[in-house]
Sequence to fold (272 residues):
Amino acid sequence: MSPTIATRNHVNVSGHGPETILFAHGFGCDQNMWRFVAPAFENEYRTVLFDYVGSGKSDTSAYNDQRYRRLEGYAQDLIDICQELQLQDLIFVGHSVSCIIGMLAAKQHPHLFKTLILIGPSPCYINHPPHYHGGFNREDLQGLLHMMDKNRMGWASFLAPVVMKNPDQPELTQELEQSFCAIHPKIARQFAETTFFSDNRADLAHVALNLPILILQCSDDSIAPLEVGQYLHRELPGSTLKILQATGHCPHLSHPQETIQHIEDYLNTTSR
Fold:
């Protein structure tokens, strides 16, 4: 018998309130990365946490190479969870690649979403000069994949400090490195390729124009540079761009109070 969606994606529901906030983690992470942020909303909202198939405590036997070769496969995880829990008009909080995954899900099923809150989003990580700066040359990312093929542990110790970029909090870099290493190498490699080589710029035009969107951009982020946040703000009519004092790519870990405050402020200014 195939596992239920709740078991497959290790879904956890907490909190109280008439509205639901769903938190979606990024590449190489799991729902535990929201532990400093999600509890702050449990008094007023129902909160949903989950792991994508292949991550965290999900059922890795459900992993399918063909399905997860494209970000739409991960978007289907999100849609499945919403349908299993009979969710609609939810507040989506996504980190990194989950921002695009959430937008792809909203493109297919706009009624599921009321608001998108995007932390460190990027529709394309590769530079396309002269009009788009994604932060990486294609050769850089091919080098990362090569490293993942040749050194199953070394790539994590290389990438974690680049992503976290908060040397004053070395325990967070170590945690992220351990999280990278916890994923099955084959799944990690394919998720990395799917994440870093996808180009979803054309999908932005299909996100509902009346959908409130908050973009939270860190002031110094090597993974999603400031130019990417500004690009998204231009391409998503009605979106709000907030530049955080936080540095790195994981402000929900390194600067949770600032992250919480911006989310709360935004939700308080949009209709409940």
About this structure: The CA atoms of residues 147 and 158 lie 10 Å apart. The mean pLDDT is 94.
